[in-house]
Write a structure and sequence with these properties.
225 residues; mainly beta; globular
């Protein structure tokens, strides 16, 4: 299993157990009213066509998989354990987008996100897209809210094809002085460690040829309007 990266480009492959992910470095801020902004350019031309199920983007990642949660053992990629709690968005091959609140249980919070852009997002037609997520904290302007935008092509200047948000206490977070983010993909053949003696078996499953190229990614904390 190899992580291919050059500068701000990483290639993630689903060869190990239909799942691959990577973390971005922790970003700190001293201003409680600041929010998180995650931007990333995605090339999914070899993902959905090769069996990938959805792409995920998570912020405020905390904890890890282990004996106290349903997976009952770690899920390691590049020496890092999959988080236990986080919030973010997931993107499907038909262009649907959902908000997900990972909560350390087998039943994460899920909510469909309506596309208010007036356009149609179709990863089959536009497999290369730029995604931007902003997430507020309880003391800031976007308290209890997350927003996502998707544009065609390599940059934030491309045509807007998806825009949506979720709001409510379940989507907010308390200020923690900083944030950690992750991105990755999964296919339907993923087998949790709980099914293999609490030790993940990194075998090729349903989508060994599925791959994502993530580029121009960054996480920062700043004032959000």
């Amino acid at each position: 299993m190899t992580l291919h990266h050059t500068g701000h480009t990483r290639e993630l492959r689903l060869t190990p157990n239909d799942l691959d992910f990577c973390y971005l470095p922790w970003v700190a801020s001293s201003v409680p009213s600041h929010g998180s902004e995650l931007v990333c350019t995605v090339d999914a031309s070899r993902f959905f066509a090769n069996g990938g199920h959805h792409i995920f983007f998570a912020v405020d990642c905390e904890g890890g998989q282990g004996s106290y949660n349903p997976h009952c053992g770690p899920i390691l990629r590049y020496g890092k354990n999959l988080w236990a709690t986080a919030r973010g968005f997931i993107v499907f091959g038909d262009g649907a987008v959902m908000a997900e609140g990972w909560n350390g249980t087998a039943m994460p919070a899920l909510a469909a996100v309506a596309n208010t852009s007036g356009a149609v997002f179709d990863p089959a037609q536009h497999p290369v897209f730029a995604l931007r997520i902003v997430a507020g904290y309880r003391q800031g302007a976007l308290a209890n809210r997350m927003r996502v935008e998707i544009r065609t092509g390599l940059s934030a200047k491309g045509a807007l094809v998806f825009s949506g948000s979720v709001e409510g206490p379940e989507w907010g977070r308390d200020w923690a002085g900083g944030a950690r983010a992750a991105m990755g993909g999964i296919a339907s053949g993923f087998v949790p460690p709980s099914a293999t003696g609490c030790v993940e078996e990194l075998l090729p499953r349903s989508a060994p040829d599925a791959a994502l190229v993530m580029s121009r990614f960054r996480l920062r904390m700043r004032r959000l309007a």
